[in-house]
């Protein structure tokens, strides 16, 4: 049976007894019904993972004993940022989950002219918490050892003002070079912009190009935003990373 993995963002040491945070307790004990002596893996997002076993369980708390540290590294050599226009909530969740499985390091939600979903100032913190939850669950499931960051949403104009090294690409249907035909020595890190359900406007694509963002395509078929995101990230990981 696969040993369950839990993200617990705190420092650990071999031999240490750790009280599980409430959410981890609920997942490990109440959902997965782990019992005393059963193995589990903890990771804190700083690299590597800790093999542990349940040492004590009571009605409301549980502790684990850290048995060993494994310096396992499941991170890709290429640093990827997904700059994803905000799309409908279930589609956004899907795009983020797949992006984490595909090894992205940073997620930048983007507000664009055709964004249907609007996030009010008072909703930003709640949205970020929700997206971070998706990212944590995807890291736990996919064996990631470093936690990708989710940034607060920005407008396209604000994002273009952020200084970034490497290569920035905008994915837009049209007669643009294919994303999988990029030269092997393309400067990294790579930031990839994906549009909302209605796509980027022509003016947005033009503004990006003027700002030095490379327009790229995924071929003749129009993919849904969340499909485009997964397909493009898979191609980038294949070309420049470890897929
Ligand atoms: N009619 C819209 C347009 O022309 O942009 C379609 C938008 S598509 C549903 C959502 C996003 O997925 C696009 O903004 C783009 O980032 C990406 N996308 C989908 N299919 C694509 C393709 N064949 N080439 C490049 N990008 C694509």
TrEMBL record:
Ribosomal RNA small subunit methyltransferase E methyltransferase domain ranges (all copies): 75-237
MF-aspect GO terms: rRNA (uridine-N3-)-methyltransferase activity
Pfam name, any one: PUA_4
Domain of life, per lineage: Bacteria
Subcellular location: Cytoplasm
InterPro entries tied to this protein: Alpha/beta_knot_MTases, PUA-like_sf, RsmE, RsmE_MTase_dom, RsmE_PUA-like, tRNA_m1G_MTases_N
Domain Ribosomal RNA small subunit methyltransferase E PUA-like: 20-66
A Gene Ontology biological process term: rRNA base methylation
Enzyme Commission code: 2.1.1.193
Any one Gene Ontology cellular component term annotated for this protein: cytoplasm
CDD domains xrefs: RsmE-like
Keywords: Cytoplasm, Methyltransferase, rRNA processing, S-adenosyl-L-methionine, Transferase
Reactions catalysed, as given in the entry: uridine(1498) in 16S rRNA + S-adenosyl-L-methionine = N(3)-methyluridine(1498) in 16S rRNA + S-adenosyl-L-homocysteine + H(+)
Protein function: Specifically methylates the N3 position of the uracil ring of uridine 1498 (m3U1498) in 16S rRNA. Acts on the fully assembled 30S ribosomal subunit.
Family: Belongs to the RNA methyltransferase RsmE family.
Protein name (record): Ribosomal RNA small subunit methyltransferase E
Upper lineage: Bacteria, Pseudomonadati, Pseudomonadota, Gammaproteobacteria, Thiotrichales
């Amino acid at each position: 049976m696969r040993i369950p993995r839990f993200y617990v963002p705190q420092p650990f040491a071999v031999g240490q007894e750790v009280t599980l945070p409430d959410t981890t307790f609920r997942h490990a004990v109440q959902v997965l019904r782990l019992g005393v002596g059963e193995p589990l893996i903890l990771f804190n997002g700083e690299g590597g993972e800790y093999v542990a076993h349940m040492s004590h369980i009571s009605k409301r708390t549980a502790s684990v004993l850290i048995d060993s540290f494994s310096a396992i590294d499941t991170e890709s050599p290429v640093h990827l940022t997904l700059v994803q226009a905000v799309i409908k909530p279930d589609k956004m969740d899907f795009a983020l989950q797949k992006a984490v499985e595909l090894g992205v390091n940073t997620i930048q939600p983007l507000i664009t002219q055709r964004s249907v979903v609007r996030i009010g100032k008072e909703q930003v913190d709640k949205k970020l918490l929700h997206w971070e939850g998706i990212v944590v669950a995807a890291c736990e499931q996919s064996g990631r050892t470093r936690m990708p960051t989710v940034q607060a949403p920005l407008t396209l104009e604000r994002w273009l003002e952020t200084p970034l090294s490497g290569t920035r690409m905008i994915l837009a249907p049209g007669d643009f070079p294919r994303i999988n035909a990029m030269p092997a020595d393309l400067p990294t890190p790579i930031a990839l912009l994906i549009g909302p359900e209605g796509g980027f406007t022509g003016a947005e694509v033009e503004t990006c190009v003027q700002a030095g963002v490379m327009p790229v395509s995924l071929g003749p078929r129009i993919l849904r935003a969340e499909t485009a995101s997964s397909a493009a990230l898979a191609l980038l990981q294949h070309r420049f990373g470890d897929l």
